[in-house]
Amino acid sequence: MNTPGGNTNSAAEHTCALILAMCRNLANRHTELMNGEWNRINGIELSGKTVGIIGLGRIGMIVAHRMQAFGMKTVGYDPFVTASAAAEKGVKFMQLEDMWPICDFLTIHVPLLPSTKHMINNAVLEKCKKGVRIVNCARGGIIDEEALLENLNSGRVACAALDVFEKEPPSTDSPLLQHSNLIATPHLGASTAEAQTRVAKEIAEQFLALRDGKSTFGCLNAPLLRGALSQPVKAKLAQQLGMLLYTLNPKADVLTVKGDDESFVPYAVMAGYLNAKGVSAANLISIKKVAAANGLSFEYTATAEDLTVECGDVKLSGRFDGVTSFLTKVNSTPTNIPLNGNMTVVRSGSGLFSQLPALSGHVTGTYFAGDVTILSHCSKTLESDKLETLGTLAMC
Question: Between the CA of residue 307 and those of 196, 276, 314, 322, 328, what are the distances in Å?
Fold first, then answer.
């Protein structure tokens, strides 16, 4: 689950606090005073200065609003925000190349992506106004830390405030961390009592909505869950076929799936396969991570015919007729086996036939499919020394 709004205000306030701290370099003044030094060094005011906001989402817009209260000019860039939308919040929309030379402060509010990694680098800093002050409360890695150190040393960057680092925690002997014009905090953006309460509440509400089938908002694997929630019978059939597949081939690392919805069907098959293997943590929420950890993957082909799963020389097909799910084929043998209740899968042979009379009254259905026999609702323990039991599954 993800709660993108829970820490918005806290992260914005922390950004503003660091901007204010840089104006007077409060960290250094505090340390000096604790060491008995009384250094009344001039700082700067915020009023009349320009802050460039990179990323005009929830946090960026709150920062803009707060800094406008100090009399700052707010400019910003975001590839997903229009100039008119920015203007409604009092932010002048600008391209990055136009922002660099005019900003007294830069604050970053974008995710770490391949396109944003080291977006603040030597080439960019050379274009910035001399004496620029930079804040990063977003993600480590967006600022090239070596370039930042070089520009702090040269004075092009007057001060920097970092709440995030490329490696967390950073090394205590890092030259950047020890620089007198760096203010550093240990990733505190979301660390307020109020933010943690909001996050907990939002997660609880999201789980309730997910349980009731109302919404998948906040789910990192929302497309997968959305499909499964809207078509629960199909998801169950896929899981049942995966369970049966394991009993017939327990050593697969790639499952071939033919179905009509790639968003969740193959994942449900893998979850069933791993459940039958005894991996209880495998479900539609965790399956991508759990399958990878167990070395299991799938190959998918779209089809409008019966759902089919296979691995090695085992191939199973199934369908739902509006009331019950059925196993319609085992390898090349057509079947019509209802997938419900407890099912025992055994290897067919004389050992099985010798036990059939004793199973009378304990089995509601006996289905033969080539060299495999499936006993439906089997409530009697079979004599394992007389036949090969491949697995017992709860299909409910």
Answer: 44, 19, 14, 15, 9
- Indicate if 65 belongs to the active site: no
Peptide bond before residue 114 is cis, with ω within 30 degrees of 0 = no
How many angstroms separate the first and last alpha carbons of the chain?
A: 28
- Give yes or no: 319 in active site: no
Could you say which of 187, 226, 347, 377 is catalytic?
187
Residue type, 389: T
Strand-strand pairing, 389-394 and 372-376 = unpaired
Inter-residue contact 239 to 246 (CB < 8 Å): no
Task: Report the percentage of the chain scoring pLDDT > 70.
Answer: 78
Closest CA to 217 of 6, 369, 380: 6
Can you tell me whether residue 81 is helix, strand or coil? coil
Q: Are 311 and 255 in contact (CB under 8 A)?
A: yes
Active-site option among 14, 66, 133, 139: 139
Residue 273 corresponds to which amino acid?
Answer: Y
- Hey, is 390 helix, strand or coil? strand
Cα gap 134→142, rounded to integer Å:
12
Is residue 32 among the annotated active site residues?
no
Strands 333-338 and 325-330: antiparallel
Distance CA 53, CA 28 (A): 26
Biggest CA–CA distance in the chain, Å, is 99
The full length of the chain comes to 396
Q: Which of 316, 311, 278, 315 is nearest to 294 (CA)?
A: 278
More confident residue, 222 or 62: 62
Distances 368 to 273, 329, 337, 376, 392 between C-alpha atoms, Å? 22, 11, 10, 11, 16
Q: Can you give the pTM of this predicted structure?
A: 0.60
Question: Helix crossing, 232-248 with 222-230: angle to 10°?
Answer: 100
H-state helical runs in 220-371? 222-230, 232-248, 265-277, 287-293, 350-355
Position 394, amino acid: A
pLDDT of res. 356:
41
Q: Convert the pLDDT of each residue in 280-322 to its tens digit.
A: 888 877 788 899 999 999 999 988 889 999 998 889 999 887 7
